[in-house]
Amino acid sequence: MVINTGLYDVSSEGQPFIVPAVGGIVPNVRVGDSAFGFMADHIEPAVTVKHPETHQNTTLNVLSCIGNEAVVTSGDAKGEKGRVTGKHGGVEHVMVDFAPEAMRRMTIGDQITVWSCGLGMRLLDVPNVKIFNLDPDLVQRIGMDVQGGRLRVRVARIVPAAVMGSGLGRSTVVRGDYDIQTFDDTVAQQYGLRELRLGDIVAIADADNSFGRIYRTGAISIGIVAHGRSFVAGHGPGVTTILTSATGEIDIEVDRDANLATYFNVH
């Protein structure tokens, strides 16, 4: 886990703070846990993976898809298997969930191989819906349905595009995430944003992520909450995009159990 080298960050209220941040091995933070349940900033669940060489790390971030199997290939936990749960932009991290017993035998510097599958996948029955960052096996577990040429997906929460922050402006969504701001009490309460959990599948209304992240009336994007809250202006729980339709051809059903912890049987 990394502490800001400048030590202090400054909150949206102008308060300096020092708390745990991104990276490392965090056995007590996993998908299914509250995105607001820890005194931390941008907390990443379970194990964070990053290649020390920049270009190799970009490749790791782009090729890794949520649900991909990851295998520890060195150290005391060699042979243990986990699943990719999200990608974090800026720091360019890939997060992987392992069982707590495996994480206690892991140490910084252990090598992890991600078995990539999913990049470039298309949904032939719904051509106006693009899919990103998702393992084909997880598509089956989530249980998406095609009805009348439209895709139906279960989500835990609906998020208005107006509160999306850090991560806007990138021309691709096959790496990283963008953040849900929760500083406005009225909107946060209306949409239950402070009840978000790590691993929640969420719908972002009026958001088109087809070729980057933009506001578009009537569009809809689906993502997975990859990291926790932030106190810093413009930041918050991060969402890795998995689906988008510029023409709004995704129907949603609210289901509070729509979380990676459900699909990965995390307890």
Give keywords.
single chain, 267 residues, mainly beta, Thrombin, subunit H, tm1086 (SG structure) fold, 2 domains, six-stranded antiparallel sheet, six-stranded mixed sheet, 5 helices, 17 strands, 12% helix, 31% strand
If you had to describe this structure to a student in words, what would you say it looks like?
- With 267 residues, this protein is mainly beta.
- The protein has two domains: 9-115, Beta Barrel (Thrombin, subunit H); 130-263, tm1086 (SG structure) domain (tm1086 (SG structure) fold), CATH 2.102.30.10.
- 12% of the residues lie in helices and 31% in strands.
- It has a six-stranded antiparallel beta sheet. Strands 9, 12, 13, 14, 15 and 16 form a six-stranded mixed beta sheet that branches. A three-stranded mixed beta sheet has the order 10-11-17, with no helix packed on it.
- Strand 6 (81-88) and strand 7 form a beta hairpin.
- It is globular, with a radius of gyration of 17 Å.
- The relative contact order is 0.20.
